[in-house]
Each structure stands twice: as structure tokens, then as C-alpha cells.
């Protein structure tokens, strides 16, 4: 992999991403196909009349062979045509656009806060290795790391929302932008796990980098300590952290689903949970595609950034 | 050392409740109005004694997480070893490439999708958590087995004509044990996390099940009236996951140093 240019690396990595997206989309379609009893049976009600089922099937095009429907669905995806909801008859895209706002706000704010905080904490801990701050950080992050979001959320709501009444316990009927207080608890819950893992990685990378040969060499050359730390050591320390940020999107998406459910925020996670409860499969299918594409895209982006920061880094395909 | 002590303490409370709690639930349960200040913690959303629910509700979380972790090793280790020791590179690719796809999808999404399609049941929950967890085990086993198969010791054993059983199972297996054990804590916490989150979202368990995560979800409506019916099961889950993590983290440090 030596001497790989950014352009050719990008092309390779993008091709892999495309294959991943196609594979996931196919998998989702097959999974939904595997369902016992199709949408027509679900729609026909409690006492299904075979003639009625056949009629619904014909109307929805379910009597056609699966490869044909798959091709049609696949062609529709780039045009954001995800099909029609079984329950309400509205296009699935409408559900997605309806829910995307709050979810993007939550995810974007989390990432915007996550990066500076975890880098700062990690660097501080590394510069004072073995100090009280360093040890406290390690203990807290080991402990916080594993807590399921819903349990943390409920405990925080009980303390800050109900007992102390400092913050609103849920976001029912609130406008996310008009009342930013609504977002405080959800953001704290979403940030708790990723901050721990990323700041620990930054710390480890920074400790390694500061002890490395090139930093010792830079010191011998008489470069300023600030320049050594932030222009030479930090970029190398960040590369593994950036890739971990990408893996965090996995948690973030899962976390967002849970956090939206706990705080009653009408985002994509709530749409998903409702669609699953109503067995509205086209909506579930559409959401699965959106989530999968997002995850693949973020991973792609992170690998590219990591490659740019430390080009020698072997990137796991 | 101190941290591991706290860890054991944190595990002990929820684990004792989960394993011994069901023995102390009275046969005949009386129902009263929802969220009344009766009993130790008050009553839950359908008027059952919340303390009895806490006693009965730990079993599923603990058992499902343990079973799913065990299964992901049972499936993942042979899977990874076969991929690593396959003579044909195609077999390796065929086995490992699909896992990349599985790893590209958010785990909670896989869980929700599969559970939506296959329906309720603890077996489904065990199956799905295994499905989500085993790719990591398989990858780790493959990497470890690859490293071991290149060792001179194994080469020498092969030349001496040791049996396949001796080289592949006894020697390779024993050498992998330590790496796999070090990873156990991470797998177990991941399984606990997934099981609890799935139950909270109503995936895989019936809506009135005696389960800590389900209690947290169902009793949220009474947070203002009987906060303990929500906070106690939530804290038990927190204690369990933090405890497991602290104990394994400590054990890992001991192995490394």
C-alpha cells in the first residue's frame, strides 16, 4: 500500500462503500421478503378473504416475481422513491423527510460537541500523564462507557427533570430550536459513551506520539514545545480517534433511536419504532436504507480523513 | 485493585437479585391501582407490586446476555479459525466479506429489523444478539489464528507429523485462549447493552414481561408519581454494566502487566 495517492485511495475506498451499500440494500429487501405473510395479508384484516388478499396483491403489484419488484425498488432509490406506506398510503419519503430534521439536529450537535471536548480532555490527560485528571478520566470513562443510553437517560430525567425540576423531562410538544433546554439532557446522554472512548484513544495516541523518535528529534532540533505538541504529535494521535468517531456513528444512530424514544422527540428513530410496531414494512425498509447509507458514508469519510492525517496508516477495508 | 473491588460490589447486587430474586416472589400476586404508594417501591403501570417485579425481572437480562455471548464464541471462533486456516484464499474471502457488510449496519438497526420480521421470543433475542456480536469474535479469532499458524513451533509440529487434532485444536486452541479471554469483557458488555436496549424498545419481549428494561419503559408514565418504579430497575442495569466493565478492565490490566 506504500505510495498510494489520496486520489486512488479515495477511488478504491468509494468502490468498497458502494458495494457495501448495495449489499445492505439487497439484504434488507431479502429480509423483508422472508417475512411470513406479505403486506396484503396484513392489510386484509383479521378475517382474511382469499379473494380480497389476491385483489390487494394485484393492486400493490405484489403478485409479480420478486426480482422484478427488487429491480423496481432499486431503481426508485436514487430518486428517493422508497415506495408507499402500508398503513397510511403516504409515500415513505414523506415519513423520512418528516423525521430527518430532529435526528440531524441531535446527531450534528452531538458530533460538534464531541470532537473538541474529547480531543481537549484526551490531550490534557496525555500532557499530564499519571496526574489526578488522567486517573479520574480513565476511571470515569471505563465506568460510563458501558451504560445503556435509556438507563442513563431515565436516571438523569428522574434527578434533573423530576426531583430538581431544572430541565424539561421530555420534549413533548416542544420546538427544538425555540427551547434549547429541551436538548440538554438528550445531548448529555448521547455524548456520555463516545466522549469516553474517543478521549481515551486521543490520550493513548498522544502519549505514544510524545514518546516517539520524531518528537525526540524535533526537540533536538530545538522546535518550540507548542509546535511539537500540536503540529507534529497531535495529527498522528488523531488518526485512530477519527476512525473511532466513525464507529461511534453506529452507536450514535442506535443511541438516537433510544434517546428519541425516551425524550419523545419526533425524529427518524421514533418513525422507525412506530413503523416496526405497526409492521409498516416499506417504511422500515426505507429507514434501513437511509441508516445504512449514512453509516457507510461516514465510515468512508473518516477513513479518508485518517488517511490524510497519517497516510501510512493501513486502513482496514 | 480498588476499582475491581467496586466492580465486584456493583455486580453483586444486581446479580444476586437476578439469580435469587425469583425465589422470593410470592405465588399469589395481588393487583391494585397503578402507581399507588404500596409496598417497598409502589405499584407499577398495571398495579403490580414493583418490588416483586424487580425481584423477578433480572433473570432475562442476565441469562440472555450470557447465552448470546456464549453462542457468539461458539459460532465465531470456529468461523474465524476456518477462515484463517483455509487452504484456498477464496474460502477466506467468502467467509469474511459478508461480515464487513454486517459490520457496516448499526447493530441496533439489525436487531430491530430481524426482530420485526421474526417476531417475539427470548430465543429470537438470543439469536439476534449473537448475530450482531459474532462478526467481531470471528474477526479476532481469524487474526489470532493467522498469527499462530505462522509460528515456527507449529511448523515444527507439522513436520514431525503431529495429527491435525494436535496442531489445529490443541495447540492453536490453547494459544488463542488468552486473547479471546481478554476480549470476553467487551463482548459481555456489548451483549448486555444490546439486550437491555432491545427490551427497552419493546423488541423481543412481551410488553408486560417482568424485565428490568421493560419496567423502565412501561413505568415511565408514572415517573412523577412513583419514580422508584423506574429508577430502581434502571440503576440495577447501570450497576450491572458498569460492574462487569470495571471487573474485566481490571482483569485485563493484570494479564497485560
UniProtKB/TrEMBL annotation, chain A:
Membrane topology: Multi-pass membrane protein
Keywords attached to this entry: Cell membrane, Membrane, Transmembrane, Transmembrane helix, Transport
Transmembrane portions of the chain: 104-127, 147-166, 178-196, 251-277, 283-302
Main location: membrane
Gene3D superfamilies in alphabetical order: MetI-like
Pfam families: BPD_transp_1 (PF00528), BPD_transp_1_N (PF19300)
Organism: Lentzea indica
PROSITE patterns: ABC_TM1
Name assigned to this protein: ABC transporter permease
Family, as annotated: Belongs to the binding-protein-dependent transport system permease family.
Cellular localization per UniProt: Cell membrane
Matches recorded under InterPro entries: BPD_transp_1_N, MetI-like, MetI-like_sf
Chain ranges of the ABC transmembrane type-1 domain: 100-302
Superkingdom classification of source: Bacteria
